[in-house]
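Hi R.,

Here's the chain you asked about this morning:
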Amino acid sequence: MGPLVNTLIVGAGQAGLAASYWLGRAGVEHLLLERRAALGGAWQDRWDAFCLNTPNFSLTLPGMPYDGPAPEAFMPRDELIGYVRHYAEFIGAPVRTGTDVTRIAPADGGFDVETTGGRWRARNVVLATGGYQEPKIPALSAHLPGHILQLHTNDYRKPEQLPDGAVLIVGSGQSGGQIAEELLAAGREIHLAVSTCPEAPRRYRGQDIIFWMMHLAQYGPDYGLNGLTVGQLPSPAARFMCNPLVSGAGGGHDLHLRELGRRGVRLHGHLETAADDGELTFSDDLPERLGVVERTFYQRMQPMFDSYIAATGMSAPASDRPRQDDWLPSEPARLNLGAANITSVIWATGYRLDFGILDIPVLDEWNYPRHHRGVTEHPGLYAVGLPWLTGHGSSIVAGVGRDAEYIAEHIAAR
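And here is the predicted structure, written out as tokens:
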């Protein structure tokens, strides 16, 4: 059956390491299994010039909050990977790298865990594989001409990786917006299929918006402000909503689609169909889409921030006026890849959860474990680091520690 361990943590990214910290504090024997050859989590899949979209002050992994000289700066990818590796060393995390878990099944009141490095028995299992498990690429990608280079953002690294010619980016969330800006600066012609991910100001009322989100998530419930808790979501599907469209590149700044359009990015609606002759069709609702993108922050987030500032009596400058911009693109709803000299397509279409390793009926219709605060319906099985596990910050460095502490307490109590 393999060696016995009290708790196996599947994944040694920020979520798994945070769980390891709290389990270690509680004296619970545990082991982390990491499929990658080196630590650093999914940050290793970001492009070369990637910078964290949350300021350095949000790096609050338990026991080692950021204490460097630039709390308001945005950490570049390689430095962020180093931060994660240093944290693992700092807490003495018991990690086995290069060990891919292939099956988790119930056995004798615990679990039988099969991996590429052998089998284990465990009383508890913590799923800490994160929210960026499987790149999501639309089925219509199969209809594009074979000579077109197709990359998911997971595999994009730098402009030089792409063949000469124009680039179509599908999706305008954080990755799509930032890569569009990077390629534009590199002199590439860019077409961007616009989604409805909301824009947000990088700073609001004197602080980075992450400052307000962190405070609202941690202290808001004390004032009856629960907008960033999972219970306030309009539906379970909303757990997969886009993060605000901002950038950490170049010291951090706003990203506005209309401004990108004015700078030369050709904006289109939602990509609806593709044919093997290179003919694409987009939705013809681009003005409406841009309106949704620009209004959402002021409809959803701004009132929560203002209410929190008022409730706490915090000192903050007056509320900023919503940005006004009436510029509209004039791109047609049909586009031929050949005529536009588009030679590559980047799918900025996000990720889907993949818990195919689970031989346990605990997933809902969205492939999300059924749980309460990370404690799943199956005794001894836990989850941490998933989007909106308990709140908006559950999948990011700033918030994962709270959820990890709760499940570690639950495991220790068993």
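One quick note: The two ends are 23 Å apart (CA to CA).

Cheers,
M.
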